[in-house]
Amino acid sequence: MSQQYPGDTATITTPAGDTSTQRYEEARAAASRAMDTITVAPEQPLRTPPEAPENADLDLDLLSYRGFKFGAAFFGYLIAISMSVLLMAAVSAASFGTAQVLDYTTSDAKAQPGAALITAAGVSIFMLMLAFYSGGYVAGRLARFDGGRQGFGVWVIALLVGVVAAGLGWFLDSQYSLVDDVNWPSLALSHNTLLLGGGVAAATLLLLTLLAALVGGKAGKRYHDRIDELL
After folding, report:
1. Does 1 or 216 have the greater pLDDT score?
2. Structural domain for 155, as ranges
């Protein structure tokens, strides 16, 4: 028995009565016809899954501990003020002792007022930088997170307290003329020179103490970062 199916070039001869072979050839021919009708779709670019956010595994409970913490900044401010008083007292004592040894009198300072004022301003700014670094470090250490913000908070609290104190002093002076009773030393410098020097010193003091507080806050936070790396 000979059979030929569409799509086949060969004629298949099967003995009559061999039903299994006949069914096999029929299935083979049907598969060949099905393969001819299949259309292959053009290749599609692979879809990449969206990237997971960097903080996807961050515990949401930790977010409540981040940000500015007034308590940490306030205690850092107290440390900054305490350190400034201690450092200024130590520098004053050292300066007095040095002046006694070198026989440096008030008349010598009046003879060179510019050098004396620049030296005093530089030493004072440096001492306050150390004080604000200590305050920022304490605030960053207490808060554990966001040390830079805690250091900035220390500086802002000090600035606000200073503004309030200056306003209170101006009010008291307007009422009781306290400044007029102070015996100011006479300096061989013009009023404009003193005003310009005071403005430059104040701007430098604000900028450098801010940087010191920020660096101190980050240094205090780094202590906790090192512990987290070991856990």
Report:
1. 216
2. 72-230
Mean pLDDT of all residues belonging to the chain: 81
Tens-place pLDDT, residues 94-113? 888 888 887 777 777 777 88
On whether residue 48 sits in a domain, the answer given is no
Query: Residue 212 to residues 5, 123, 194, 218: CA-CA distances in angstroms?
Result: 92, 15, 26, 10
Whether residue 168 lies inside any domain: the answer is yes
Alpha carbons 220 and 150: distance in angstroms, whole number: 10
8 A C-beta contact, residue 177 and residue 112: no
Predicted confidence band of residue 225 (pLDDT cuts 50, 70, 90)? confident
Per the structure, how many domains does the chain have? Answer: 1
The answer to whether 134 and 79 are in contact (CB under 8 A) is yes
Q: Is residue 137 part of a domain?
A: yes
Amino acid letter, residue 67: G
The helix/strand/coil state of 13 is strand
| Burial of 80 from C-beta contacts in 10 A (0-12 / 13-18 / 19+) | buried
| Residue 202 counted as domain residue | yes
pTM above 0.85, yes or no: no
Q: Which residues are 2's β-sheet partners?
A: 13
For the stretch 80-83, contacts whose Cβ atoms lie closer than 8 Å and that sit 24 or more positions apart, written own/partner, are 80/131, 80/132, 80/134, 80/135, 80/136, 80/154, 80/158, 80/213, 81/131, 81/135, 81/158, 83/130, 83/131, 83/134, 83/135
